[in-house]
Amino acid sequence: MEDMNxxxxxAAKPERPGESAHVTGYLEAHERVAxxxxxxxDNGELWVPDDLDAADxxxxxxxxxxxxxx
Length: 70
What we know:
Helix content is 44%, strand content 0%. The protein has helices at 21-34, 44-47, 54-66.
């Protein structure tokens, strides 16, 4: 049976107190790469949560993209 939650965003907002959107984006990139769902920093646009405000969205994307920095 197919996992019904497979395509749902995993981390809409930081879940732990003090965890920034940047860290959440970085961790999401790590998971997406491990799952084979992401292979470049540009893939962040596909996975960024819809419910973030502009500042958190930018921070989340920076975190996601930083996962791919050498």
